[in-house]
Design goal:
Elements: E1 2-3, H1 5-22, H2 38-60, E2 68-69, H3 77-100, H4 102-116, H5 121-142
Antiparallel strand pairs: 1-2
Helix pairs in contact: 1-2, 3-4, 4-5
């Protein structure tokens, strides 16, 4: 799906304005020329400027482009199923990760996504297991992100 740039420009402009409004309540640091609102304010100003320019360009090009154009994949049942598996995997992770744990849920999600993308089963299973272990090591051990163990709590390392 392709939306006209004017729509995204307006979204960025509103987001930037909302951030600018929100940082007005940030406290000032006595004796300091800058405070905690400086960097969010700079980013918000950048969002407002780029949003305005994007909206302006989209408005000027509105005659040549439709406001909404669907991509070809929208008409493909295989791609619709892949999208459904992707969205369903997010819901499945949210609902099942605390009970089952990160490791089994991640393997199941990756396996489902590989199979819907027509990766052969042995290769999909191998990649799902290895990728899950690498991701778990990177987040749990290196970054110290507390991933849920679920059913594997007695075997937590």
């Amino acid at each position: 799906m392709k939306l006209n740039d004017a729509i995204f420009g307006l979204v960025l402009l509103v987001l930037g304005a909302a951030v600018l409004f929100a940082i007005q309540g940030y406290p000032k640091i006595p004796g300091q020329p800058v405070g905690p609102a400086l960097f969010p304010g700079m980013i918000a100003c950048g969002l407002c400027v780029t949003g305005f320019l994007l909206a302006l360009r989209g408005w000027r090009d509105r005659a040549g482009h439709r406001w909404l154009a669907w991509e070809d994949w929208v008409h493909s049942p295989r791609h619709i199923v892949a999208l459904a598996v992707l969205l369903g995997s997010v819901v499945f992770y949210i609902e099942a990760s605390n009970w089952l744990g990160f490791l089994p849920v991640a393997v199941l999600i990756l396996l489902a996504m590989f199979l819907v993308l027509r990766v052969p089963l042995p290769r999909a299973l191998l990649i799902a297991v290895v990728a899950t272990l690498v991701i778990h090591f990177a987040f749990y051990k290196l970054l110290r992100v507390p991933l849920p163990w679920g059913l594997l709590t007695p075997y937590a390392w």
